[in-house]
């Protein structure tokens, strides 16, 4: 199955929203997707930027920084992190 760039970007938006809901993104910061390229030898990655990091990058507080070499690997890494954190958030709500 081929994973499109649009699918990876949409999953990243879900991932970023879930991480913000889980308070895993400090105030004034945002998550950034660094798109990979097998041709240029760049891996897919997620970084924190803004706030105390300024225009620099830092590893995310929760979830992977390295997503893989292909769009499919990146999509699956984002999907796994999103569903795991979403499940924990639902569990936390049901305990309250």
Please characterize this protein's 3D structure.
The chain has a 3-stranded antiparallel β-sheet with strand order 1-2-3. The radius of gyration is 14 Å and the shape is flat. The chain has one domain (5-88). It has helices at 5-21, 71-95; strands at 29-34, 44-50, 66-68. The mean pLDDT is 90. It has 96 residues and is an alpha+beta fold. The protein has 2 helices and 3 strands, in the order H-E-E-E-H.
Which features would summarize this protein structure in a list?
96 residues, 2 helices, single chain, alpha+beta, 44% helix
Q: Can you give me a brief rundown of this structure?
A:
With 96 residues, the protein is of the alpha+beta class.
Shape by Cα distribution: flat
Distinct helical segment count: 2
Strand order of the largest sheet: 1-2-3
| Residue fraction in strands | 15-25%
What's the arrangement of secondary structure elements?
Blueprint lengths: L4 H17 L7 E6 L9 E7 L15 E3 L2 H25 L1
Antiparallel strand pairs: 1-2, 2-3
